[in-house]
């Protein structure tokens, strides 16, 4: 009996490790097609959108944030209403008014609205060397805070590192830094091409 214990234990460990690896890859890449689709609509880098979702919810579509943000990209009800109004589809406005949470838990809608909002934030800081960092900080803390952090500098010249140093909310600084780090690593195989 004891002679089968070690090989059995080894087999269990190998199978567990392989299963964990395969589950992890499935978990973090199961929305890749939706991400790619919506990122292309809003002219965003799909790897950046993937990195945002990784940071926001680790791909948990049901997650509700402390400020009532919902879904994969932690979209707020206010942003959802703005998006619905801008689309002009009365049915979306009606669905959001009736049950915002349910509407935003749908991964496709959530990623669509999250990408729309990311693009809106990017428009404010386009062509700045710190465009991505500013966009992410605005997505997390609001565009007015980014304006505040850059009020005494030329935004067309501030570097990403200089901008991140100016962020005076530690959670936002960590958020932006973490996403940008993960984004830079996605070229090393963390995103399926």
Gist?
The chain has 193 residues and is mainly alpha-helical. Helices cover 70% and strands 0% of the residues.
Give the proportion of residues in helices: over 70%
Question: What is the number of domains?
Answer: 1
Average pLDDT figure: 91
Oligomer: single chain
Contiguous uncertain segments of 5+ residues: none
Give an account of the 3D structure.
With 193 residues, the protein is mainly alpha-helical. It is built from eleven helices and no strands. It has one domain: Lysozyme (Orthogonal Bundle), CATH 1.10.530.10.
SSE blueprint and pairings:
Elements: H1 2-29, H2 32-41, H3 46-57, H4 77-87, H5 90-98, H6 100-105, H7 107-125, H8 131-141, H9 143-149, H10 160-166, H11 170-185
Keywords for this structure?
0% strand; mainly alpha; 193 residues; Lysozyme
């Amino acid at each position: 009996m004891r002679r089968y214990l070690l090989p059995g234990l080894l087999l269990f460990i190998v199978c567990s490790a392989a299963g964990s690896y395969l589950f992890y890859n499935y978990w973090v890449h199961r929305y890749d097609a939706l991400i790619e689709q919506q990122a292309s609509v809003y002219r965003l880098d799909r790897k950046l959108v993937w990195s945002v979702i990784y940071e926001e919810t680790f791909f948990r579509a049901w997650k509700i944030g402390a400020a009532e943000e919902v879904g994969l990209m932690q979209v707020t009800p206010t942003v959802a209403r703005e998006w619905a109004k801008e689309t002009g589809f009365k049915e979306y406005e009606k669905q959001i008014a009736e049950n915002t949470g349910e509407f935003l838990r749908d991964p496709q809608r959530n990623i669509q609205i999250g990408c729309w909002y990311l693009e809106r934030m990017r428009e404010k800081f386009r062509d700045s060397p710190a465009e991505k960092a500013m966009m992410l900080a605005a997505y997390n803390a609001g565009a007015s805070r980014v304006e505040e952090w850059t009020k005494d500098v030329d935004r067309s010249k501030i570097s990403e590192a200089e901008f991140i140093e100016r962020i005076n909310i530690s959670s936002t600084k960590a958020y932006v830094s973490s996403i940008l780090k993960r984004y830079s690593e996605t070229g090393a195989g963390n995103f399926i091409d």
